[in-house]
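A quick aside before the break. I want you to see a complete sequence-to-structure record at least once, exactly as it would be stored in a machine-readable document. Don't worry about memorizing anything.
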Amino acid sequence: MIYKTYRAPTYKEAVLNAKMDLGNDIYILGRKEIKEGGFLGLFAKTFTEITVAKSNGAVSDAKAGLSENKTGIMGAQSQPGPGGIQGDETAKILEEIKNIKLRLEELSTGTRRSEDEIPNLNRLVTVLKENDFSEDFIREVRNRFREELTLKDAVDLKVFEKKLREFIGERIETSGPIEPGKGKPKVVVLIGPTGVGKTTTIAKLAATYGVLQKHDVELFTIDSYRIAAIEQLGKYAELMQIPFAVINTREEFKNAVSASKAEIIFVDTAGRSQKNSLGLAELRNVLDGVQRNIEIHLVISATSKYRDALDIVSRFSQFAYTNIIITKLDETNTLGPILSVLNREKKLSYVTTGQGVPDDIELADKQKLLDMIDFEMLYVDQPC
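That is the input. The structure line, written in tokens, reads:
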């Protein structure tokens, strides 16, 4: 085995020099930054020094073009080498050297691994971009990989995908189904911007709990702006034989909830632009009439752009919502924008996949959402 050191202004140049001298089949055992020149510590130049190893046989072949019948350590697969070392023992030694090299790089201090040193990092960025994850999210995941992923894991694409799924999955926390109230009604309120499908979603929930599961359910709407929406929800309630009430004020909301004998009250609200501060304040004033046993779900469309989604989750936070419902999963090919804005404090409760009532709604499932992400780009050959 031959050991040599190479020094160059950059890590890439040092590796290139080593490969030009010894060939491509080398093992980098260590790396350090050194300073040279200058005066009294000033104006010194920084160089990168690497230590590499390569078998005697491979070096001889690379430099001198030895014939096939000549054997070195690398060529000792079938013939004993000096000291009787067999080919399998040689492979074991080389594997140990490789592991030592990986460990040294992982434990090295004072220098941070560059992206070029982590195999497949460019593939990670490609996958996240193809799935429309935000630049902020990509930067966060990339930094996590640089800090936490071992080089050994980074070269195995299956392990690489598993780690990527885990990192993305950390953003997804699910709540499970809505639990009916005991003794007093559970008040479930849906809020969100216009056009996300709140009215259809609440009809699906009412049908699921009131018709399919036979719970005692009531429907309220706090929406004096959209006559068509009130009529639509009223027709759903009539078909499902569920009590229905239109709420206009804080007092009406408070009194209606107090008088209810239902297990669950589903409350639809008028769609409000996240930029309509006055409209949001009016809605909050009505909802503040009930302080206990209330559960607020923010409804957001899977088709939302990242910046809009970020604005929505931020501006509606004044309602102290605890859950998120993602609608229109059937209308998008990528979940990156929505998953980029999620955090574990706000749990996903339901997702909708179409207009059908009550069929096109289901409990949010982390694994199903992860399976909607296209990881195939990890396995596509990319130019160096």
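Two observations worth writing down. The longest strand covers residues 27-36. The chain has two domains: 1-111, 186-364. We'll return to this after the break.
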